[in-house]
Design brief:
- It is a single chain.
- This protein is mostly helical and 78 residues long.
- The chain has one domain (2-73).
- It has four helices and no strands.
- It is elongated, with a radius of gyration of 15 Å.
C-alpha cells in the first residue's frame, strides 16, 4: 500500500511539472539551471530553455506518463 502512495505522489508531481512545462517552458527550465553544478546538467537544461517547443513536447509526454502511472495505481482501488 505504501508503494501505491509513492507512485501516486510521483504521478501527480509529474503532471504538475508537465503543466509548468506547457505554460512557461523557458522560465520553468531556467529555474533549474543552477540546481546542480554538473556541466552536463546545465547544458541539458539550457537546451530545453532555448527550445520551448521541445520543452512543451516533453511536458506533454510527462503529463501522459503521470496520468498512466495514476491509472495503474488506481486500477484495483474501489
Amino acid at each position: 500500500m505504501v508503494w501505491r502512495r509513492v507512485l501516486e505522489i510521483a504521478g501527480t508531481l509529474m503532471i504538475g511539472d508537465g503543466l509548468a512545462f506547457l505554460a512557461a517552458p523557458r522560465r520553468h527550465m531556467l529555474i533549474w539551471v543552477d540546481a546542480l553544478e554538473w556541466p552536463l546538467w546545465r547544458s541539458m537544461v539550457q537546451w530545453f530553455a532555448d527550445h520551448p517547443a521541445a520543452g512543451r513536447a516533453s511536458g506533454l509526454a510527462e503529463i501522459a506518463l503521470g496520468a498512466w502511472m495514476l491509472a495503474r495505481v488506481y486500477q484495483d482501488v474501489e
